[in-house]
Write a structure and sequence with these properties.
The protein starts with a strand and ends with a helix. By secondary structure, it is an alpha+beta fold. It has 9 helices and 4 strands; from the N terminus they run ββαββαααααααα. α3 crosses α4, α4 packs across α9 and α7 runs antiparallel to α9. The protein is globular, with a radius of gyration of 18 Å.
Length: 208
């Protein structure tokens, strides 16, 4: 499916994969490469949909809105938003088995304004299509935005309590104080973005 964003053509590649169970899907995924997310060079938004036992994923709208936001960001900027050294370092360490490396990576990733905007846009899409005024706050807690805000907050707390993270932080080009100040400012900005969208959603729900 083709669409136009900011005057430029994009192609949506939506692929459905059907499995009877989660273990079956995991076994299949271990030996297959699945294209996902925004591929800037091809101008593709790849959205895999894993249907387990006949049920689509609960975060489907979150994923779609998230990737559309990244496509919009890249199109407006004229280059891939995720090309910065610090951002790329964080991406490569999000699954690091070393807790110190992973914690710093999670903080840096969730400090990214582009990621925050995409997470909040994904949250908007998910809640707008699944919530009512009664369940909205509980549904918010199941969103990726809530998950990453929690990782940012918990990561900051961990760094404040220990000097063990200093060496990792320095590899990202910051000293401890600068890193914490940036992270705390970013957390406030993230909270403000989420609050504004939740207010917008509640207003839309009430107005019907």
């Amino acid at each position: 499916e083709k669409a136009t964003v900011a005057g430029k053509s994009l192609t949506f590649h939506v692929t459905e994969y059907f499995f009877d169970s989660e273990p079956e899907k995991d076994k299949w995924a271990a030996s297959h490469v699945v294209l996902t997310g925004w591929i800037e060079k091809l101008r593709w938004i790849c959205i895999p949909i894993f249907v387990i036992g006949g049920k689509p994923p609960e975060d489907l709208f979150d994923t779609v809105y998230h990737e559309i936001e990244h496509a919009f960001q890249t199109t407006k900027m004229g280059h891939d938003f995720g090309s910065g050294k610090q951002y790329m370092m964080s991406i490569s360490n999000l699954s690091n088995k070393n807790e110190t490396e992973r914690t710093v990576a999670e903080i840096v990733y969730s400090m990214s304004r582009a990621e925050q905007d995409a997470l909040v846009n994904g949250m908007y899409g998910q809640l707008k299509n699944a919530s009512n005024i009664i369940t909205l706050d509980d549904d918010f807690k199941n969103s990726e935005a809530y998950l990453w805000l929690g990782k940012l907050h918990d990561g900051i707390s961990a760094v404040e309590k220990s000097n063990d993270y200093d060496a990792v932080i320095s590899r990202y080009g910051w000293n401890r104080n600068t890193f914490l100040n940036r992270a705390k400012k970013s957390e406030r900005e993230f909270i403000n973005k989420i609050t504004r969208v939740l207010y917008k959603l509640k207003t839309e729900v009430l107005e019907g």
